[in-house]
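A reminder from the course coordinator: this example appears on the midterm review sheet, so study it carefully.

Given structure:
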C-alpha cells in the first residue's frame, strides 16, 4: 500500500514538473528553442503541447526554411490529437500554400483522411462524407501513382458504402411506413412509390453496391403492395408492372431467399391480369 502511494506521488510530481517546463517554454521568447521543444513534444506523443506551441510559431516561421515543416507538423499534431476538423483545415492550408512542397502529397492525402475520421453513421447527415469523398478523389486525380493510392481507393469504397447505407435506410423507412399518408411528399403518391424511386436512384448511382439485392427486394415488394393499394384505374397496370419486376428479380437473383416471395407475388398478379 505504501509502495503504491509513493508511486502515485512520484507520478504526480513528475506531471507537475512537466507542466511547469511546458509553461516555461511556452512563455519563452526564444522561438528557435520553442520550435525544437515542439518537435520534441510531437516525437514523444505530447500532441496537445506540440499543437499549442506550433499555433504561434507557424506565422513566425513563414518564409523561412522551416516554414513548410512547422505548418505540416502542426497539422499532424492536430490530427494525432484527434482534432480532425482543425487538422483538415491546416492540411488544406499547407497544400494551398505549398502545392509543390516537401509534404504536399501527404498533406493532400490527409485532408481526406481527417474528414474521413469525422464521418458520421449512415443515419445522420452525410455532408462530411461527401467532403471526404471529394478530397480523396482530388488526391487520386493529382497523385495517381502515389504509394497511398490503395488506401485512398479503399476509403472511397468505404465512404460510398456509407452513402448507400443511408439511401437504403431511407428506402426501408418508406417501405415500412407503407400505406401511411402522413409523410407523403408532393412528388409521390404513396410511401411505396417513394421507396421505389429512392431504391432505383440508389441502384443507378451505385450500380456495384454490395447491397444491390436488398434494394431490388424493396422495389419488388413495394411495386406489389402499391398495386394492391391502387385505385381501380391504376390497379391493372401496376399489377403487370409488379409481375414484370418479380420475373426480373428471379432472373437476376435466382439463388435469393426472396425467390419464394417473388413466385408468390407472380401467382397473385396473374389472377388479376388474366381476369
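Designed residues:
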Amino acid at each position: 500500500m505504501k509502495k503504491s502511494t509513493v508511486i502515485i506521488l512520484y507520478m504526480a510530481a513528475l506531471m507537475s514538473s512537466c507542466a511547469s517546463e511546458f509553461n516555461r517554454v511556452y512563455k519563452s521568447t526564444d522561438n528557435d528553442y520553442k520550435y525544437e521543444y515542439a518537435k520534441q513534444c510531437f516525437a514523444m506523443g505530447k500532441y496537445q503541447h506540440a499543437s499549442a506551441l506550433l499555433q504561434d510559431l507557424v506565422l513566425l516561421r513563414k518564409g523561412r526554411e522551416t516554414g513548410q515543416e512547422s505548418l505540416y507538423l502542426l497539422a499532424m499534431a492536430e490530427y494525432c490529437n484527434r482534432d480532425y476538423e482543425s487538422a483538415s483545415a491546416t492540411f488544406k492550408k499547407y497544400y494551398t500554400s505549398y502545392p509543390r512542397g516537401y509534404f504536399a502529397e501527404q498533406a493532400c492525402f490527409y485532408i481526406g483522411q481527417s474528414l474521413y475520421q469525422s464521418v458520421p453513421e449512415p443515419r445522420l447527415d452525410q455532408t462530411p462524407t461527401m467532403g471526404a469523398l471529394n478530397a480523396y478523389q482530388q488526391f487520386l486525380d493529382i497523385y495517381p501513382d502515389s504509394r497511398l493510392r490503395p488506401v485512398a481507393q479503399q476509403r472511397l469504397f468505404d465512404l460510398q458504402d456509407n452513402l448507400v447505407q443511408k439511401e437504403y435506410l431511407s428506402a426501408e423507412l418508406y417501405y415500412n411506413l407503407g400505406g401511411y399518408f402522413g409523410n407523403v411528399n408532393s412528388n409521390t403518391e404513396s410511401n411505396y412509390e417513394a421507396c421505389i424511386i429512392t431504391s432505383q436512384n440508389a441502384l443507378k448511382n451505385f450500380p456495384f453496391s454490395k447491397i444491390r439485392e436488398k434494394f431490388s427486394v424493396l422495389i419488388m415488394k413495394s411495386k406489389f403492395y402499391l398495386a394492391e393499394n391502387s385505385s381501380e384505374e391504376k390497379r391493372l397496370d401496376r399489377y403487370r408492372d409488379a409481375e414484370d419486376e418479380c420475373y426480373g428479380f428471379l432472373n437476376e437473383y435466382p439463388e435469393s431467399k426472396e425467390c419464394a416471395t417473388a413466385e408468390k407475388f407472380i401467382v397473385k398478379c396473374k389472377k388479376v391480369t388474366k381476369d
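The chain has twelve helices and no strands. Residues 173 and 195 are 8 Å apart (CA to CA).
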